[in-house]
## 1
Amino acid sequence: MAAELDFSPPEIPEPTFMENVLRYGLFFGAIFQLICVLAIILPVSKSHKADSDSFEPKNSEPVKKPKATAPQISKKPKKETKKKR
């Protein structure tokens, strides 16, 4: 009876080129997502903040903003007309 049972491993076909591309592409995508999540969770080093501040212009005088002009009062008021029924 033991001679009748076949315990050999099943035949698994070799993966095709597209299956390999898909498999490694999914691995690459998962690693990229982990890197992105870690970049959000981990704090940024302080040396990076100091570098970004050095690019800002350093003027001793504050930048003056132009003042908004006041609306002119000399305009003629519009005539009010009664509604015709």
Note: The CA atoms of residues 72 and 78 lie 14 Å apart.
## 2
Amino acid sequence: IQIDVESFVNSFRPDVMEAVYSWARGSKFHQIMEMTQVFEGSLIRAIRRLEEVLQQLILASQSIGETQLEAKLEEAVSKIKRDIVFAASLYL
């Protein structure tokens, strides 16, 4: 498989990482939206996908007996899974 390394590296969005980190630290949604130029839906989707990946990592750490890693991942999930991002509907 041929991979263009430069385009792969450029596909990462560091501004989204900073916004998600702020979200995990307890910032309000309107505050993290001011930090980035992405659409609200794109940011919500990124945070939800991160939660899905963390859930899969929790299952993997359980299967290999890494209880400390599992606890850290569960803590990370508890910090990002809150408020409007995980509401059943955005039309409240």
Note: Helices lie at 5-10, 14-24, 29-33, 40-63, 67-80.
## 3
Amino acid sequence: MSSSPLGVFGALPVDTLTTICRHLPMNDVVTVSHLDNELGDCVKRFIYRELKGLKVEINENESTIHFIHKDKRSTQLKLEGYAWEEVVANAKCVESLEMIISKGMSTSSLFSAFRKAPFCLRSLKIQIPKGGDKFPSKTYELRKRCYDLATKHRSSLRHLEMTTPDGQNAYANLNTATSSMRFTFNQAEEPAPSEEAEHNSSHTFVYTVFHAFLNVHTIKNVTLEIGSKFDPNLALQKAYQIALPYSGRPILERLTIEFGNSLKSMNEADMKQVLLRHVDECHVSTPNLQHFHCSLPHDEIDLSQEFLTLLNEPVTKSRRNPKSQPYKSTISLRTVSCQ
């Protein structure tokens, strides 16, 4: 009688062996899968397919990939050797990926594995922390690979979040059933003159990755949530640019803008000017827009008929054709408690 490399464990039922493997560290799971062909098939069919999420952390001190199981347990492997690549190659049911990767780090093997992986992502989170950049060429490659990854999964993606080294954060939550999206934009701190180039480069990076994702979806209802730290006009402009690719603006039917609580301190005249400037610059590119709503973090603002007429004027002037879509704008105020 030939002996099994699993010893007495070879006589156990497959479901029992699977249960045992579920409680092993991932490096042990990989080792066990190589001991016996039947058990290897079992690991691939059950253990690896129970993985629902991945989290990657790469910096000067560590290079680790975390595997999140369907029961929320997390195991990890170092991004060394080939064990982690074997797991990724068989993790067909992964839906979410979070990457925290410092500038200047090598990412070729990582993205090569993701490019070949069989899963279809629904959620992608990219964070590039603040820090020095010893190898700018690798940072350029990282940005390009993030773009390619978002492009590969753009049809299945429903959530995309990006955080850049300067603190800019953008998050999109897409509902394809209702052709709607909620987009949150948190402005970075005001850059020093020496940081302008990096600041603009970060915006371009976020802009291109989001457009790779959004350009393939039909979105008719958009809510923009704006967090401003130094320039509300610029924050709204950048959020609008990222969230609404030019190709999607003609089909937009409803736009809601929710200004964050940080704008409570803005005086009435300046707040009105932000709205007037936005409508004047942007709404001529949305010929199908039928309802524009704005939520302001103010207790009282004088919403006179004169102001509302000014707010609607750029749109009404561009829609004099009787066949043009009807249009209306509304503004709501909300009380914000002092922190």
Note: The first helix runs from residue 14 to 22.
